[in-house]
Amino acid sequence: MSPIYWMGWMFYRLLFATYCRWHVFNPERVPSRGPVILASNHASHLDPPLVGAGLPRALNYLARESLFDLPVAGWMLHQVNAVPVDRDGAGAAGLRAIFNRLRQGGAILLFPEGTRTRDGQLQRARAGVGLVVIKSTAPVVPVRVFGTYEAWNRFMKVPHPRPVAVKYGHPINFEPLRAEARDCSKDRLKAIYQQASEEIMRSIAALRFGEDVDRFP
Q: Considering the domain boundaries, does residue 192 fall inside one?
């Protein structure tokens, strides 16, 4: 972690512990070193720092490339390992940047749904994350965040003091699909990308809040 990243990491850990009364489940399932893709549901602007604060290693985050042109914000984004991507996150330059971070042994956070949920429910996966997963060799860890929609969804101006939690799943094995993708038709390749994305979303949906998910506020 860079000094700026570490300070942000400590700030969010304190914020989540006091303002949001957070819970962190199974961070040991995330490899402590080497490339890894973390794939999480997306309900709030709190999701990236929540997923990152629960881990002892630094993450790489996606950020809109136009933000890097701002003098102070651009410098800060570089310090917290942000990866510049276009608005849809599927441009060639953004993909190259993502793969470069993975080749350098980095951990990167992706959101298969592409955008924040509007109603708090899990959304359908987009094929973009499947492309990254299939073209890489990195392990893929599903992650689920709880409570962030209630704490700060897209309709709220400021975060509310609501309990939040993050749970890390077991790595998913994509080797059979990766092997098939090396020698298949373009149509099948597109289907493989979507299949991988949907498998990730099923794994995210299967994660539960400890043993008492139904009683979580």
A: yes
Please give the C-alpha separations between residue 79 and each of 8, 63, 72, 76, 187, in angstroms, as whole numbers. 10, 13, 11, 5, 40
The answer to whether residue 51 is domain-embedded is: yes
* 23 three-state secondary structure: strand
214 falls within a domain: no
Domain that holds residue 61: 3-209
Average pLDDT over residues 159-177: 96
Binning pLDDT at 50, 70 and 90, where does residue 73 land? Answer: confident
Does residue 188 form part of some domain? Answer: yes
**Mean pLDDT calculated for residue range 58-87:** 84
Query: 90-131, pLDDT tens digit by residue?
Result: 578 788 989 999 999 999 999 999 899 999 999 999 999 999
pTM, 2 dp: 0.91
CATH number for the domain that contains residue 50: 3.40.1130.10
pLDDT of residue 89: 53
DSSP lists the bridge partners of residue 25 as: 167
Residue-by-residue DSSP string for 52-107: HHTSSS--BEEEEGGGGGSHHHHHHHHHTTEEEE-TTS-SHHHHHHHHHHHHTT-E
Number of domains in the chain: 1
Q: Is 6 exposed, middle or buried (0-12, 13-18, 19+ CB in 10 A)?
A: exposed
Q: State the amino acid at position 109 in one-letter form.
A: L
Residue type, 199: E
Taking every pair of Cα atoms in the chain, the longest distance, rounded to a whole number of angstroms, is 52
